[in-house]
From TrEMBL:
InterPro entries: Amino_oxidase (IPR002937), FAD/NAD-bd_sf (IPR036188), Zeta_carotene_desat/Oxidored (IPR050464)
Domain called Amine oxidase: residue spans: 10-283
Coiled-coil regions, chain positions: none
Organism from which the protein derives: Marinicella sediminis
Superkingdom of the source species: Bacteria
Identification of the protein by name: NAD(P)/FAD-dependent oxidoreductase
SUPFAM superfamilies: FAD/NAD(P)-binding domain
Length: 412
């Protein structure tokens, strides 16, 4: 059986890895590298070459089971990471780091701030009610729930909205409509609803390109880089994949591309494919890898692995920073920072690399769309996978790639 796999990110790589030796596959990738969001940059800082991840960064072994299984099979080493969270409000001057009591009150004036104590109380209240909310299956959005249950503006605007924005790389306005139960289920799965004994997070030693290299070296199919697919049509006998160079016939196709890209490539989507794929849009985020510490909180005690900035001029974008020295235990003194959508605040001379990444946008229609896509796996000789079929994270991409490959195997 000949299989076309379109997309060389984690989903396509995991599907190909599973199908090694089972089918004759060709993996198409539009970019000049494999990995997608597993994107490692080599930069020179403090007189040494350092590998820094600017897309996918961390995982934990308990939750990222498909991904971790792949790492174990391909003997890819990882090291401990740090997942502390901070907020820096450039309008009001509020800063805090939620790691411990000392960093939480790194601004001593908050010891006398009633709103700050109310925020802490609301954090505990929100987490305490999470399990019952998950069990309820309510379809309410995040902001509507918080408003109806009298959560303070301080908690909403200075904690939960920035946190959800950072987690899903979404803007402050869009994430307000995020489905509450979907969000809480994700946090439960990642053991983020507990205030103590949180899981250990890890990062790939030498950067995520190390796992991409190890996995890709074991692929038995043909890999074509710099080969964007411009069209796919299906018939009873199989599928036809078109590129600028040629059109080729295959028995099956696995789309490991984003939902919007998949819809653009499909020449003959049926009504369900059209509606379901269109219901999960993507947003583009501009990333800068830089060394301008002004993007981090002014108070060094508030420096955390990921921090959200609230700027004076608010834009409908995610404004999160990743402090890579902590996240990847970088061997340098100079702060190395990944910032999303904050290019105008960064000293141009300190920008090392810029990229654009796409992230799925979730709303209360997402779950239904995901279920529709899963219900048509294999129809028209077509399979779908991608992080958009889960919560949008690397494990979701890994799991869906394996799941699509298994579904295809069942048709052999």
């Amino acid at each position: 059986m000949r299989v076309a796999i379109i997309g060389g990110g984690v989903s396509g790589l995991m599907a190909a890895d599973y199908l090694n030796g089972l089918v004759d596959y060709t993996l198409y990738e539009a970019a000049d590298y494999l990995g997608g969001h597993a994107d490692t940059q080599t930069v020179h800082i403090d007189g040494q070459a350092i590998e820094v991840d600017t897309g996918f960064i961390v995982f934990n072994e308990d939750v990222y089971r498909h991904f971790n299984d792949m790492l174990q099979r391909h003997e890819v080493p990882s090291i401990k990471s740090d997942m502390s969270f901070a907020v820096s409000n450039k309008v009001t001057g509020l800063e805090y780091n939620a790691t411990n009591l000392s960093s939480l009150f790194c601004q001593r004036k908050n010891l006398f701030n009633p709103g700050f104590y109310r925020m802490i109380w609301d954090i505990r209240r929100f987490y305490a009610k999470a399990e019952s909310l998950i069990q309820s299956g309510t379809e309410i959005g995040l902001y509507d729930y918080l408003e109806q249950n009298n959560y303070s503006d301080y908690f909403i605007e200075e904690h939960i909205i920035p946190m959800v924005s950072a987690l899903w790389s979404g803007d402050f306005d869009t994430v307000r409509d995020y489905p509450l139960v979907h969000m809480l289920q994700f946090m439960k799965n990642h053991q983020m609803l507990q205030l103590n004994k949180r899981p250990e997070w890890r990062t790939i030693k030498g950067g995520s390109r190390a796992y991409v290299k190890a996995l890709s070296e074991q692929l038995t199919g043909e890999v074509r880089l710099n080969t964007p697919v411009i069209g796919v049509s299906r018939n009873h006998g199989g599928v036809v994949v078109e590129t600028d160079q040629q059109a080729e016939a295959f028995d099956r196709v696995i789309f490991a591309t984003h939902s919007d890209v998949t819809l653009n490539i499909l020449k003959d989507p049926d009504a369900v494919e059209q509606a379901a794929l269109a219901a999960i849009p993507y947003v583009e985020n501009h990333m800068d890898l830089h060394t301008d510490e002004r993007l981090l909180p002014a108070n060094r005690k508030a420096w955390a692995s990921w921090s959200v900035n609230k700027h004076v001029i608010s834009k409908p974008v995610c404004t999160v920073n990743y402090y890579m020295n902590l996240l990847q235990s970088l061997p340098c003194e100079t702060p190395v920072i990944v910032s999303l959508n904050q290019n105008e605040y960064i000293n141009n001379s300190q920008i090392l690399v810029s990229r654009k990444y796409q992230h799925p946008v979730y709303n209360r229609d997402t779950l239904s769309a995901q279920q529709q896509i899963e219900s048509i796996q294999g129809k028209h000789n077509t399979f779908f996978c991608g992080a958009y079929l889960g919560w949008g994270f690397h494990e979701d991409g890994a799991r869906s790639g394996v799941k699509a490959a298994k579904a295809l195997q069942d048709q052999l």
